[in-house]
UniProtKB/TrEMBL annotation:
<protein>
    <submittedName>
        <fullName>Type I-E CRISPR-associated protein Cas5/CasD</fullName>
    </submittedName>
</protein>
<dbReference type="InterPro" id="IPR010147">
    <property type="entry name" value="CRISPR-assoc_prot_CasD"/>
</dbReference>
<dbReference type="GO" id="GO:0051607">
    <property type="term" value="P:defense response to virus"/>
</dbReference>
<dbReference type="GO" id="GO:0003723">
    <property type="term" value="F:RNA binding"/>
</dbReference>
<dbReference type="InterPro" id="IPR021124">
    <property type="entry name" value="CRISPR-assoc_prot_Cas5"/>
</dbReference>
<dbReference type="Pfam" id="PF09704">
    <property type="entry name" value="Cas_Cas5d"/>
</dbReference>
<dbReference type="InterPro" id="IPR013422">
    <property type="entry name" value="CRISPR-assoc_prot_Cas5_N"/>
</dbReference>
<keyword id="KW-0051">Antiviral defense</keyword>
<dbReference type="GO" id="GO:0043571">
    <property type="term" value="P:maintenance of CRISPR repeat elements"/>
</dbReference>
Amino acid sequence: MDYLVMRLYAPISSWGTLAVGEDRPTVNYPTRSAVLGLLGAALGIKRSEAQKLRDLASSIGIASKTYSEGTILRDYHTIQTPTSGKGVNFFTRKQELQSAKVETILSSRDYREDGLWVVAIWLKPEFENSNLEYKFELQQLQQALKYPKFTLYLGRKSCPLSLPLSPQIITASHLKMALDVSINELLAESSKDKSVKNINKLSDKSNRVAQWQINELIDTMVSDRYLPTTIDYKAINEQNTRLRQVTYHWEGEIESMFESASPVNVFTHNHWDDPTDRKQWQFTQRIGHQWTAYEPIDNKEAKKIILNTPDKEAVL
């Protein structure tokens, strides 16, 4: 099966979940709603185009691999609201604030700092030949993510991307194979994009300092050296290779993730992140799966990451 694989990385991100009262929490993986919103923005679909958004949601499946869930950042807010009264209706935010009496409520919003995820998207077989009004192809989604119509962000508008998504279409026999694609392979494709070629053109007209800065930028775009990951420094396999912890989230059948029999430590639970109407902000429930595992990284990469950690003396 063909998968569209991309890398999500930003200084801060927020994957909204069920919110009660003034708290706006975030989960530690990209939600279905957030990924669909990212694709919708790239395609230039407006919130008012409900049918397009529904067809997009019906057409694709989503899975993710967490390399680093980041650390929690809590943002404190105060919000002005009008007092409630019988027979009083406000149709705009401006009208609310023009009320004779305005109160203040407290709110907090959670973000994730320095998180790193790889996301895989596929077309659901049952919808490829359906009678949907709007049809989508992986190549179309790939081009849209490279050259988006609207600004892309991870969860909230205050969470812009740090680096390009580097979307690539790959063929894999199962989901894990698609999600395990090397990040270096994804980033290497960035050097072939027009954006990097334009940078190279500018470098011909620049001095040595500018040339060095441009080379550093290109190196950052095509290397995972500075990207976060979760390494267990005490975990070493039989081949004396350090291990890092990764977590997979996916929808559909449990067996779709694995090449052979699925492990016993797969958790299945309900998520309220499948959008039905973005204009009215309505969501429905879906079933998702989660599996956490350790995967080996070669000693060269492990040493490279250790040397860039603040507490490197403690782990060497």
